[in-house]
Amino acid sequence: MGDPAEVFLAYDIRGLVPGQIDADLTRSIGGAFARLVRRTEPSTGRVAVGRDMRPTGVGLAAAFAEGVTAEGLGVVDLGLVSTDMLYFASGHLDIPGAVFTASHNPAGYNGIKLCMSAARPVGRETGLAQMLADLDGPSDTGDPPGGAVEAVDLLGAFADHVRSFVDVASLRPLRVVADTANGMGGLVVPAVFDGLPFDLEVLYPELDGTFPNHPADPIQPENIRDLQERVLATGADIGLAFDGDADRVFLVDEMARPVSGSLTTALVAAGILRREPGATVIHNLICSRSVPEVIAERGGRAVRSRVGHSYIKAMMYDEAAAFAGEHSGHYYFRDNYRADSGIIAALVVLEAISASDGTLSDLLAPFDRYAASGELNFTVDDPAGVMDRLADHYADLGRQDSLDGLTVDMGGWWFNVRPSNTEPLLRLNLEAATGADCAAGVAEVRALITQ
After folding, report:
1. Average pLDDT, whole number, for the chain?
2. Fewest CB within 10 angstroms: 156, 175, 201, 389, which?
3. Which residue in the list 103, 305, 310, 341 is annotated as catalytic?
4. Tens of pLDDT along 139-159?
């Protein structure tokens, strides 16, 4: 085993099994989480624990539960769950939770996403740093009796909850292809779609954490090719690509063209604002300019945030926001305990198509206003130094802010660079009015980063 600090990341715990994470470590993490719960929520007596389809999750989740029960707290064993199903369980039962997953990472990885009661996020500043320091800490209660373990099946309740976000009676028959990539979408998507008027085809629905068909990482273009081909072959109205733990969704339109997270955010925000005029909608700072424009045009209040679920969830509470979207495919709903859910976002989009006389591409066309680079990664020895150099270069050329990394607005185009939390990388996102302007901007910033 290496240093546990290597797997305690900004938003979750994640690493290779067994080289970085094993049963002994997760048992200690379970104890540290239980002690954190006791200190911050002293009236809480249980913790919900679930896992995705990765084979290593069975033993790791059991060891974590042992650590929790050794501290005297009970465990609600959810079994196989998607991450958004864990957040639902936390809110529905009003207890803290943990799900064993490594999201889109390869099969050799596993990890833990944690939340407090009502799905409140646990990140580095809100508990993970305390837990790391307390891995070998003594019990806060001396020698408590062991807590009980109770198995609970919440799949049906979760499916009902997801369907409550749309007017089911207004939905019309649509042909839908969903690629769940052998991930947890294979469990939750059929359950949610049961009884809805959609012709659903699921690619790779078998739960298999070895990912025998392709990685469960739909942000990579090569991983949605099967979905694109099937959408064209069947004449589907939409394609849905879920990541491994199914908390993110990426869309493919009826012409098999990928839809950016920014356009999906704009489309869902428009739907939210039809129901709640004047509502506050949060978007992270790498979303397209079209997102705040659409929110304002439809009478909403747009609020810009840092990248990352822990920041967005906290801001949703502070700003009383109805919805939040990230360019990376995370979509957060106030009525989902301010947590993100790919399947809720997918249903809201299907409701929008049902209410229109056109196609998904028709709905998106008014929001598709700019050319974007996508996220480009650069390996650099000194990310902070490179950002300082960029800030100096553009000091008199454009407006700057440092909400998250460095953002420079040049008027006709803008870019953001921010460091990775785990690697010596700078991540660049750039947007411009035209494809030519975007390419020119990328070339200019690339030269400054790599000089």
Report:
1. 95
2. 156
3. 103
4. 765 556 778 999 999 999 999
Measured distance CA(350)–CA(170) in Å, rounded: 10
Per CATH, the number for 261-367 is: 3.40.120.10
DSSP 120-180: EE--GGGTHHHHHHTTTPPPTTSSPPPPPEEE---HHHHHHHHHTTS-GGG---EEEEEE-
* Cβ atoms of residues 333 and 344 within 8 Å: yes
Residues 6+ apart with CB under 8 A from 337: 87, 88, 90, 91, 118, 119
Residue 250 contacts residue 258 (beta carbons within 8 Å): yes
Give me the residue spans of the domains in the chain.
Answer: 4-153, 157-163+175-256, 261-367, 371-450
For residue 103, indicate whether it is catalytic. Answer: yes
Contacts of residue 414, Cβ cutoff 8 Å, sequence gap at least 6: 289, 398, 407, 408, 430, 431, 432
* Top-tier CATH class for 157-163+175-256: alpha beta
